[in-house]
Amino acid sequence: MVEIGQVCYKIAGRDSNQPCVIVDIVDERTVTVDTITRRRNVNILHVEPTQKVVKIAKGADSAAVAKALEAEGFTVPKKGAARKTPARAKKEKAVKNPDKKAKAKPAKKVATKTTKKEAAPAAEKAE
Questions:
Q1: Are the C-beta atoms of residues 4 and 24 closer than 8 Å to each other?
Q2: Which tens digits make up the pLDDT trace of 102-116?
Q3: Which residues pair with 33 in a beta bridge?
Q4: Which CATH architecture best describes the domain 6-71?
Q5: Mind listing the pLDDT tens digit for each residue in 50-99?
Q6: Which candidate, 72, 30, 61, places its Cα nearest to that of 47?
Q7: Is residue 7 classed as helix, strand or coil in its secondary structure?
Q8: Alpha-carbon distance 117 to 84, whole Å?
Q9: Could you say which of 29, 52, 63, 87 would form a disulfide bridge with 7 (CB–CB 3.0 to 4.6 Å)?
Q10: 82: exposed, middle or buried (C-beta count within 10 Å: 0-12, 13-18, 19+)?
């Protein structure tokens, strides 16, 4: 069975193949784990327990879990550091002819549909 402080590996989801620590036991099927990226309630079938157990309190915060994982020899990056990407350069709008002024486009004519009932009296008047 699992216990609080047990080091596991996630085997399902976006955090798969990452080490995690069991922080709380919700019920016989669900545990709360704190991984390198986030804290989640997971099904116990989605974690692979190891024999390593770290000393943490029930419901310990992420900083305590990271410190315990580093003591066991795991490399733990700072939270959010892995997701940051460099800012993109803004595109400048290309101006073809800055000397010409924009011309207003003429409005489109909208054709209206006439039904057979409306067209019949108009045909009678024409005769």
A1: yes
A2: 666 677 777 676 666
A3: 22, 40
A4: Roll (2.30)
A5: 999 999 999 888 888 888 888 888 877 765 555 555 667 777 766 666 66
A6: 30
A7: strand
A8: 66
A9: 52
A10: exposed
